[in-house]
TrEMBL record:
This is Spermatosis associated 20. InterPro entries: 6-hairpin_glycosidase_sf, 6hp_glycosidase-like_sf, Ssp411, Ssp411-like_TRX, Thioredoxin-like_sf. CDD domains: SSP411. Residues 16-177 form the Spermatogenesis-associated protein 20-like TRX domain. One of its GO terms (biological process) is carbohydrate metabolic process. Gene3D superfamilies: 1.50.10.10, Glutaredoxin.
Amino acid sequence: MATVGTPSAPSVPRHTNRLIKEKSPYLLQHAHNPVDWYPWGQEAFDKAKTENKLIFLSVGYSTCHWCHVMEEESFKNKEIGEIMNEHFVCIKVDREERPDVDKVYMTFVQATSGGGGWPMSVWLTPDLKPFAGGTYFPPEDGVHRVGFRTVLLRIAEQWKENKDALLESSQRILVALQHTSEIRVQGQESPPPAKEVMDTCFQQLSRSYDEDYGGFSKSPKFPTPVNLNFLFTYWALHQTAPEGARALQMALHTLKMMAHGGIHDHIGQGFHRYSTDQHWHVPHFEKMLYDQGQLAAVYSRAFQISGDEFFADVVRDILLYVSRDLSDQAGGFYSAEDADSYPTITSGEKREGAFCVWAAEELRALLPDPVEGATEGTTLADVFLHHYGVEEGGNVDPMKDPHQELKGKNVLIARGSLELTSARFGLGRGQLSALLRECRQRLSSARAQRPRPHLDTKMLAAWNGLMISGFAQAGAALAEQEYVSRAAEAAVFLRTHLYDPDSGRLLRSCYRGKDNSVEQSAVPIQGFLEDYVFVIQALFDLYEASLEQGWLEWALHLQHMQDKLFWDPKGFAYFSTEAGDPSLLLRLKDDQDGAEPTPNSVTVTNLLRAACYSGHMDWVEKAGRILAAFSERLQKIPITLPEMARATAVFHHTLKQVVICGDPQGEDTKEMLRCVRSVFSPNKGNYEGSHYLLGYRVLAFILAP
């Protein structure tokens, strides 16, 4: 007999397809669908051509909520699976593993439908040209939406009856995409003027800013660290002007509201993906590594500028979460935690947010203790429920919970300040902080008994780069050597598992295998532009936090390799992918800073740092050519490229350098370094990560006297 309270043994799956041989957690999730899935590759392409079949391409990622929904509704449906297998060659792609494939077909979906997202569903001719696409489809027809079954049958019929017309249409679409996606220097363009670009970007951000809750839209609300980094740089250039004060207020207020909100996991630390509402309250619960890395860095800068320990505490919170829950024992960082999980160990169905939300009675049972010094009869639960906005019937707006998964539950949000809560219950602020800390620890222990969400243990070079930057910059700003050491450990992991010393090239991904070993695909995926750019940035950040020469040397080597693989000598700037892959119809250049900054944006600053350290002035010229290639966009709608707008200011201001001479182990030398690293300023005493700003840079020339 099974022990009471433990899940029953898993049943033997009815179906197993070739995805069972893959390493990607997302592809493995679909290995037991009745669909005859293929991974992206020659075997699938050959089958489509030999059998003259259309290709159905499905792209998603393992922590994508709507990807799970479409799998449950359609890809696990035997009848729909039979239709897919009969009429199409079906290909599954993990967008995090193959961003190149994702970007080509997302460009098509966005151009033809006006929107995009995941799961992405695209129909291709046997020569990989798209002609129809969308995102999530319900399985059957509804009042407002055609069902997936109907779409499949209609497209199969069109291929049978109007093949030539479909082929002509796909060719026209491809030509149009090639034309509209081209980014190049027009004539003799030069980099746009920094002041004009910066002022326009600030004005556009200011107009979209939410004065009450921070952020740059009503809902949904995303963290967008690129916007906050821009505002910090704008403030640094206009410290005595009203515009500078407003830029700083916008950034700091946004960061405070995010940290108080439900998008911040008050019990388990770290940040969820985005908020579904204006108040940063009800999040989409998945947690992504790239968010943690960028937010650790931006909260570190907020601490440098403001000196407010609140921001330093948020940095420590993020890095605690990553160290505990997203770290591989070999030193790398995992990609993500899912939004969905089983509410209890006996549940048969996952729910979004189940791991993170609370019923009021559950909290009262966990926190019954009377509070000494408070009004008579006050319990820990009374204080905690008040401070974190808990309501007896749940605090989630039904409009933000369309599937009723959060009914009666509470997403914790700090509605008021510590001062207000202290006053309400007659407590000292220090006493209140200690009580809330005890409550959070108790809830953390209770939450640990719940089934955990799925963990995507894929390790990506680009995202590991962003997280290394987070640890390194936090270590420098907070004077915490352990963070710098963790960054170095992850950099060693990259060099060991995601770098080929024979070719000098980065690899895209590796995976946690059996017995916690690190595994690689049978045919490793080569690194893309974003892998090089974010790793190079990370190595500069780590070098400046540690002054270990080896990290600088590796960064410069990778910059040369990036130039060789991705530079466009005709139109300038870097392509996202290298040349020579016949399965990729387009070589694209991303033109929007989103959840992650676009690689060309970060590369401008990388090139200036590389030139500063090496004296290789060709890199300054390349930086200018990138800005020239994006000049029109930067001058008209720089809000779409805030990181590149920020980089125009770096380009137009000469980086100054600090040389500290002394014994590297001497206390006076260390104190000098701490002083330089603690300040965020454009023109004096900037911490040595001043790649971000326009001031001094500490060189590695620490000389023994």
